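tool_call: predict_structure(chain=1)
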Amino acid sequence: MPRALLLENIDPVAVELLSSAGYEVESLRGALDEADLTAALDGVHLLGIRSKTQVTADVLARRPELAAVGAFCIGTNQIDLVAAAAAGVAVFNAPYSNTRSVVELAIAEIISLARRLTDRDRALHAGTWDKSATGSHEIRGRTLGIVGYGNIGSQLSVLAEALGMRVLFYDLEDKLALGNAEACGSLEELLERAETVTLHVDGRGGNAGLFGAGQFSRMRRRSLFLNLSRGFVVDHEALRDHILSGHIAGAAIDVFPDEPKEQGDEFSSVLRGLPNVILTPHVGGSTQEAQYDIGRFVAGKLVDYTRSGTTTLSVNLPAVALHGSSAARFALLHRNVPGVLARADALVGEHGLNVDGQVLATRGELGYVVTDVNGELPPALLATLGELPETVRLMTFPPIA
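tool_result:
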């Protein structure tokens, strides 16, 4: 029976879907370091992770039986995508499933910071009745600056505008402005005009240290700051200094440079205990609805890949989906050089088979072809295809015993 390993407390719906597809599934609550992950992957064909587990080139090299990795989250920077592609390991993620959850948390935190609900809550729990409007503002009519106008940033733009906010955004790529949102020509322009700044950038290496003392200094005095994107993007020491000086009136942080690996582990941050600061433990996408949708979506992609070779929405392999059915199917991931498809088809013909259907796609240095044939796949044909110098990985459907 093929095996699947799920880490970091992935929603049970993923276990159900993989089990019903014939996989023996092991599910663990926490992340694993490189050595433990390598050991745990012995005999495993599918791996499911969230944001903390690092899938390195060394792990992939030591476990060639691994066929696919599912990132049950948005980001994939915790996976060496180049090494995975070179090893023929498909990677899938969930780019849309938790978008609404992150956006709703951002809206809730913007309102909470503007109304200083954190301070009011803390005072009342301490037994102090402080009924005052001092420092408390509506968000209607105020200017929100969104850094990163992707799936989350653009949806936040729509909801913020519906609440009466003016919306500015900045993105490295040209993006279509939704509603009345206005694109800024630079990050500096956005910082100087916005009263609330929220980060929704991706995990690419170039974003490390994106926001530090220089950026906080450019923000308007008594503005608000949120980061629900990546922990390594923000200099927390600089943020602390600007909160204590009063330049930044409040902040909400959901992601951190160093996060505990498991539930209940100790959390340390220089931002603890600061006034009007909301700290949440990386829960932007952690609603029951979002985690269910992510579990269903990514597990479904893993099942589709292992059942039919479908790579639609894979983040590292060419996208191929061959519809229909035939007597047998094989998928050949290969180096993208001329002549491979012609050679494969010729081999099919030499073994007395016809091609019933075929789809080829390329992506950089890789080509991926899925082929339906009108009869059983002879072991000699599979052996020859597997030995082609360009072959990276060969899969059959249904699997050949």
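agent: DSSP finds 13 helices and 16 strands in the chain. Proceeding to next step.
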